[in-house]
Amino acid sequence: MSDQRDVSRQRDGACVPENRYPAWVMLLLAAVTLVWLVAQGASAVRETDRLYPVTAYAMFSQPTDGTSVDVELRATTLDGDAFALDPHDFGLTYLQYRDNLRRHVGLLPGRLSPDADENLERIASIWESRHGAVLDSLEYWRIEHSFDESEPRNQELIRWLR
User: Fold this and answer.
1) When comparing pLDDT for 47 and 26, which is higher?
2) 9: closest CA among 1, 21, 18?
């Protein structure tokens, strides 16, 4: 009840797949792949001294200026207590806190979010609801840390006042 083709594909109860491509096509493909791999290996060996330890991507091609930029929120309560807000005050990790501040308030002078004032007011109300105190002001600071361990350069970008 099975045709000749089905019988030819069976060997000792195991199914043997038919060849889709002629052997010369597979041999050509293997040869091209081998040439490509050899060319990749040769270029890697030849360029090792120029590219080691990182590849020549644009982000690695120039030395950095040696600074990192951080952001900070500083608050003042109606009682006059001044302090820096912490990511844990909002139930966030440091990276979530930093990225949300950069996205919703801004990072550079003159390039702040159009609704930065409203976002600072919203941040103040969230902090007040979590801590039961009333904030008088909220300041958003940009801090540049230099890798030469000199004092960080602080710059106030925006201030929200009650």
Assistant:
1) 26
2) 18
What is the C-alpha separation between 27 and 30, in angstroms, rounded?
5
Residues 18-35: what's their mean pLDDT? 90
124: exposed, middle or buried (Cβ count in 10 Å: 0-12, 13-18, 19+) = buried
Q: Kindly report the pTM of this predicted structure.
A: 0.53
Q: Which residues have a Cβ under 8 Å from the Cβ of 78 and sit 6 or more positions away?
A: 133, 134, 135, 136, 162
Distance of CA 138 to the CA centre of its chain: 28
Residue 121's nearest CA partner among 78, 77, 79, 159 is: 159
Pairwise CA distance, residues 15 & 127, whole Å: 68
Q: Which residues pair with 133 in a beta bridge?
A: none
Amino acid type, 135: L
Euclidean distance between CA atoms 146 and 10, whole angstroms: 72
Residue 106 DSSP SS3: coil
> Residue 101's CB: how many other CB atoms inside 10 A?
22
Element (H, E) at 24: helix 23-46
Cβ neighbours, 10 Å, residue 117:
15
